[in-house]
Amino acid sequence: MIEEKFDAIVVGAGMSGNAAAYTLASRGLKVLQLERGEYSGSKNVQGAIMYADMLEKIIPDFREDAPLERHIVEQRFWMMDDSSHTGMHYRSEDFNSDRPNRYTIVRAQFDKWFSRKVREAGATVLTETTVTELIQDAYGKVIGVRTDRRGGIVHADVVVLAEGVNGLLGTRAGLRTPPKPETVALAVKEMHFLPQEVIEARFNLRGDEGCVIEAAGTISKGMTGLAFLYTNRESVSVGIGCLVSDFAQAMESPYALLEDFKRHPSIRPLLEGSEVKEYAAHLIPEGGYRAIPELCGDGWVMVGDAAQLNNAIHREGSNLAMTSGRIAAEAIFQVKSRRDPMTKDNLILYKKMLDDSFVIKDLRKYKDMPNLLHTNSQNFFMTYPQLVSKAAQNFLHVDGTPKLDKERETTRAFVKARSRLGLIGDAFRLALAWR
Ligand SMILES: Cc1cc2nc3c(=O)[nH]c(=O)nc-3n(C[C@H](O)[C@H](O)[C@H](O)COP(=O)(O)OP(=O)(O)OC[C@H]3O[C@@H](n4cnc5c(N)ncnc54)[C@H](O)[C@@H]3O)c2cc1C
User: Fold this and answer.
1) Which atom of ligand 1 lies nearest, measured to the CA of 16?
2) Which residues' Cβ are closer than 6 Å to ligand 1?
3) Based on CB atoms within 10 Å of each CB, which residue in 100, 195, 238, 376 is the most buried?
4) Considering the entire predicted model, what is its pTM?
């Protein structure tokens, strides 16, 4: 395939791979990036909210030409039961700044742009090339990759594994284990196309402003899950995801869940008249801190979803992917500059730098959260949303019942649904996990 040896091979051209390849190439390293898709982004699925700060640290002037859809000015969190939603909305004019913090993007377009930047930085990017195996020397050090191209072996000092959540290569080489059903969510997503002015009218937006709705409750039928609706320029992304183990146990299908979500009386009017043009399903790593594998070894580092770096509690993934890709590249550059070999002892610098970043600090903070929500999913996703809806209705329905009686009725409903100890226990455990 290619005779020459590279300083680094990056496997995958998603958020983490592009961040790593760009950072390495722009520091003058000889980089080969391999992507199995027809083009960068062709295989990638995201909601998608992109966090500016993390991209700014890689490409400071990205706003000049990146394909951005809308900057988000309004965030809605909805707790849903079958016929209602209780919402917390936050909207601020401050989000209309010169340098907005969050944008919606369409990954197929965004990844193509990012890939062009990687090429311009000097990396060799080969698409439609699947890496089939890591090549290791007699001592287990990774020294290159085998691809599905004819004569497809290439050597490098270090291989950056940015292959996404499935991580087949890393697993095959014994560097990590396959994701467990209880640590990954399966998410399905559709793109609903609507005229720009209809989106702006329905969501109370002007120009490039965007709105996000994230929802939990009976829509996931007692499973640990979240639904979302994001506004793009001329489309609305709508999706839902739940843990794979929950789908298996409940015998529910993600497609049926998405159909129900779209039919919900709070959602249906927002999508009315739209044309569905794209449909996708993808896994999301949700095991949190405890699911993170070894991040480096002799001749390799692992970044992004491949390393399970995803903050499900805050619905962040692409920013952890970009940051881990950038930090891994910076660590590799430092090792290279010292002319040290790419051994685990030297590449551990990547782990140290990542430990000092928000990526590991945030994941460590919520290390008990995924487990708690999973174990008590019936409470968090069925009982409490129904109770909150009942309390709101009771409060808002004016029928001559004295307010004190209404308050008693609400309290009785809470006590009846969950024993007082259970309720307090859940609140206590939640507070502990959140602290
Ligand atoms: C439905 C959904 C909604 C989401 N919404 C958000 C959101 O709103 N905000 C957010 O921040 N995150 C979100 N995420 C998470 C986010 O998409 C991921 O965290 C992020 O894409 C991870 O980037 P990555 O580069 O690690 O992996 P990926 O983007 O999955 O990229 C991996 C790449 O490696 C390639 N590859 C794999 N194996 C090989 C091989 N053997 N050879 C060559 N190439 C290979 C793949 O084709 C792919 O291009 C969402 C995820 C899903 C599924």
Assistant:
1) 25
2) 11-17, 34-37, 43-49, 130-131, 162-164, 169, 187, 189, 239, 282, 284, 304-306, 310, 316-319, 321
3) 238
4) 0.94
